[in-house]
């Protein structure tokens, strides 16, 4: 099971850099080929105060483990010895203090909050088995352990737990020991489990469908890449009992026919009554269908262009705090959500307290049983545990700064480091952020003014089974914040039968790639000049002109400002026929013209989720009912999803609909926007071997809306102005040039790829 096989890394303390351990060494790379003069403003947040956002260090993780294992009443078993009837630790991560306590401290008028950890424990030994979360702290002097409780995140039923390794292996054991299965697979496909069919794809079935814990198992040949080599064989496995010896295969799908039990299938197969499949193992050619071996065009031999930083980095990173021009922010890594940005300031003023992905959902369709109800909540095993080792020069520019993340999960029971999980870099986008050229003397004179678009990008990539998702947080000199998601990787497939044509596209021999929906939910905790904010829509309408200069009626556009007063009013379902702006503002802070200062939220990627309310998987992703919803900030509503959001449909552990349905006032309150992006993907042959990112981009933008007196980028170091030189004879053809335009003679530093040839553990952590 290639995408679930994880090697535990044991790092010494000296290797554990940039994870805010006070014993570690921060290796900030400020070296450059040319002299570097910092243009950075004074940070609004000192390094010592930013420490609260830092992920747990290896030392802290080990101290928490030592503390918990000495609690005899917990009866904890180490994960390698655990089974589903024991108590064992699934994950450990930082537990952030309340927003009020964080802001009070970093703004300098509150006490320093304690650092604490949240620990997820499988309580399999108790009579009423549950999955519990415990808060442990303070981390500098461990002496307290308390159960985490709130109205929307309580104990999770054991039935909706994540899928631990002991459970995955139990499914394999069931397949290996099922009488006759080995011979049927070998006769039908020339392969069997662990012998050329090592890929199984689990489709977990929400409890709302069956009231029992079940999953469909789809089989694939073990080739590069496995999704292009499906076989027409699926098993429905009942894994409801905690004793894996009692698990059973309930149904079989084979040769496009569904059998109500394995016993029925085996009997009919052996007596010749069942239709049979006969396939040969596909070839392992270097340039086979799913292969990503390099196949260069011999007629193109020039290399692609590259960027470089002539004066070195214009940003600074210390621990998990970043300063860039007028921007400053922190990040914290969440097991469920991956990296989240906090305390985003521009020119010393907080714009956003929290900005982060909540979950990724993929909904499939198909005629075969596994795909007909295939619903994946990718946060099930934690998005951060699926971050990729980013490759310099491809995933990020060569001049980017790379950062590791520290993680403590079942994959890394003693704590471990995922290298190159984050990259941070400045990039010239190759387009003007603004520009104008005046060529008519009577219209303001002859001049040109412009500014190239340079941005800071904070990037991570999640590799979730077959799909790769590129997540970017982008900061502009204009004061705007953009978030982008790109989808790439491999399409998921099933065996091609005529009935599947209504659900997808044939992309290879015997291979159908079904239609699917990608959904991404984000949390945007906006603080415009404080925590007392309002939300309004600026609606664009058509009005009648009763009489104009020609005494004829007509039409024109008009604006209507509509402040939303309650959460239900602000639960937005997109309607393309009613264009509008979404504006968050502070009603007590106006500019000199009387405009309330605010920020606009706009999205490019709203989608309509078509599953009826309350049907199957839908209620565990009730946030997808809205393209955007605005609620008041609550500590009990920290996230719209949970790590249980696959099996828990029907009785979700986190029910987002309750965030909205309590319908509280949102006037002059601390507001949070929950925004959903999505796209329907109808696969096609150009998705072979990989889905390309072009056309797969979804984004949203927070941009100032009467927040500044003018565009803040007018103060950019990179602005350029040109005017003609004047001469008495009028023969002068030269230009006066203002701005930072210089010739560069330095040679840009290049990434040393020879080091990767010797040690690739920065890309594949299983090599460490």
Structural commentary:
The protein is mainly beta. 10% of the residues lie in helices and 36% in strands. The protein contains ten helices and 36 strands. It has a 17-stranded antiparallel β-sheet that branches. Strands 13, 14, 15, 16, 17, 18, 27, 32 and 33 form a nine-stranded antiparallel β-sheet that branches. A five-stranded antiparallel β-sheet has the order 8-9-10-11-12. 41% of the residues are buried. Residues 1-44 have low confidence and may be disordered. Belongs to the copper/topaquinone oxidase family. This is Amine oxidase.
Looking at this protein, list some descriptive labels.
768 residues; mainly beta; 17-stranded antiparallel β-sheet; 10 helices; 10% helix; 36% strand; Cu_amine_oxidase_C; Cu_Am_Ox_Cu-bd; Cu_amine_oxidase; EC 1.4.3.-
Rounded to the nearest angstrom, the radius of gyration is 28 Å
Number of helices: 10
Number of strands: 36
Given helix and strand content, the structural type is mainly beta
């Amino acid at each position: 099971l290639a995408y679930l096989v994880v090697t535990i890394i044991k790092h010494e303390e000296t290797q554990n850099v940039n994870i805010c351990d006070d014993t570690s060494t921060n290796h900030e790379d400020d070296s450059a080929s040319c002299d570097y003069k910092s243009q950075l403003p004074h940070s609004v947040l000192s390094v010592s105060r930013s420490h609260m956002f830092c992920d747990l260090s290896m030392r802290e993780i080990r101290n928490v483990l030592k503390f918990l294992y000495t609690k005899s009443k917990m009866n904890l078993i180490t994960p390698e010895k655990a089974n589903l009837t024991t108590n064992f630790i699934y994950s450990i991560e930082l537990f952030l203090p309340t927003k009020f306590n964080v802001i009070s401290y970093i703004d300098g008028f509150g006490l320093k909050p304690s650092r604490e950890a949240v620990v997820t424990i499988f309580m399999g030994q108790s009579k009423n088995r549950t999955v519990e979360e415990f808060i442990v702290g303070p981390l500098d002097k461990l002496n307290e352990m308390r159960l985490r409780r709130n109205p929307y995140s309580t104990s999770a039923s054991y039935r909706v737990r994540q899928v631990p390794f002991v459970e995955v292996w139990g499914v394999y054991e069931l397949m290996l020991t099922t009488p006759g299965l080995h011979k049927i697979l070998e006769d039908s496909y020339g392969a069997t489990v662990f012998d050329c069919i090592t890929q199984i794809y689990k489709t977990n079935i929400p409890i709302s469908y069956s009231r029992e814990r079940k999953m469909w198992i789809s089989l694939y040949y073990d080739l590069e890449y496995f999704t292009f080599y499906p076989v027409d064989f699926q098993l429905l496995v009942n894994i409801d009992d905690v004793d894996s010896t009692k698990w059973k295969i309930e149904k079989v799908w084979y040769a496009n026919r569904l059998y109500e039990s394995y016993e029925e299938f085996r009997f009919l197969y052996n007596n010749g009554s069942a239709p049979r499949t006969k396939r040969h193992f596909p070839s392992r050619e270097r340039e086979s269908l799913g292969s990503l071996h390099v196949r260069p065009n011999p007629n193109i031999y020039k290399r692609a262009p590259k960027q470089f930083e002539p004066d070195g980095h214009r940003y600074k990173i210390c621990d998990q705090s970043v300063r860039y021009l007028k921007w400053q922010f922190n990040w914290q890594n969440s097991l469920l959500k991956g990296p989240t940005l906090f305390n985003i300031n521009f020119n010393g003023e907080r714009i956003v307290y929290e900005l982060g992905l909540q979950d990724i959902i993929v909904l499939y369709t198909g005629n075969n049983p596994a795909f007909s109800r295939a619903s994946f909540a990718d946060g099930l095993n934690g998005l951060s545990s699926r971050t990729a080792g980013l490759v310099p020069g491809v995933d990020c520019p060569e001049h980017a700064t790379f950062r590791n993340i520290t993680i403590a999960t079942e994959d890394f029971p003693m704590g471990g480091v995922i290298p190159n999980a984050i990259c941070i870099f400045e990039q010239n986008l190759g387009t003007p952020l603004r520009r104008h050229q005046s060529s008519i003397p009577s219209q303001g004179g002859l001049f040109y003014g412009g500014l190239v678009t340079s941005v800071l990008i904070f990037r991570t990539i999640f590799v979730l089974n077959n799909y790769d998702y590129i997540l970017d947080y982008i900061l502009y000199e204009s004061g705007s914040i953009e978030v982008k998601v790109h989808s790439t990787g491999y399409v998921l497939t099933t065996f091609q039968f005529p009935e599947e044509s209504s659900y997808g596209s044939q992309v290879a021999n015997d291979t159908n790639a079904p239609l699917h929906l990608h959904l991404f939910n984000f949390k945007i905790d906006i603080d415009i000049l404080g925590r007392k904010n309002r939300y309004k829509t600026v609606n664009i309408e058509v009005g009648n002109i009763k009489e104009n200069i020609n005494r004829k009626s007509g039409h024109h556009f008009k604006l209507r400002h509509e402040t939303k007063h309650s959460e239900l009013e602000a639960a937005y379902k997109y309607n393309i026929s009613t264009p509008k702006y979404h504006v968050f503002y502070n009603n007590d802070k106006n500019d000199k013209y009387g405009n309330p200062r605010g920020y606009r939220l706009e999205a490019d990627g709203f989608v309509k989720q078509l599953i009826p309310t309350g049907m199957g998987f839908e209620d565990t992703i009730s946030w997808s009912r809205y393209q955007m919803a605005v609620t008041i900030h609550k500590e009990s509503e920290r996230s719209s999803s949970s790590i249980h959001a696959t099996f828990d449909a029907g009785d979700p552990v986190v029910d987002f609909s309750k965030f909205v349905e309590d319908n509280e006032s949102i006037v002059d309150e601390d507001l949070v926007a929950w925004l959903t992006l999505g796209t329907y993907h109808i696969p096609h042959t150009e998705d072979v071997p990989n889905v390309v990112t072009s056309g797969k981009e979804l984004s949203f933008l927070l941009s100032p809306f009467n927040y500044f007196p003018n565009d803040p980028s007018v103060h950019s170091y990179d602005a350029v102005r040109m005017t003609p030189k004047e001469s008495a004879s009028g023969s002068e053809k030269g230009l006066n040039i203002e701005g930072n335009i210089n010739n560069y003679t330095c040679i840009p530093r290049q990434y040393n790829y020879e080091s990767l040839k010797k040690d690739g553990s920065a890309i594949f952590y299983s090599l460490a």
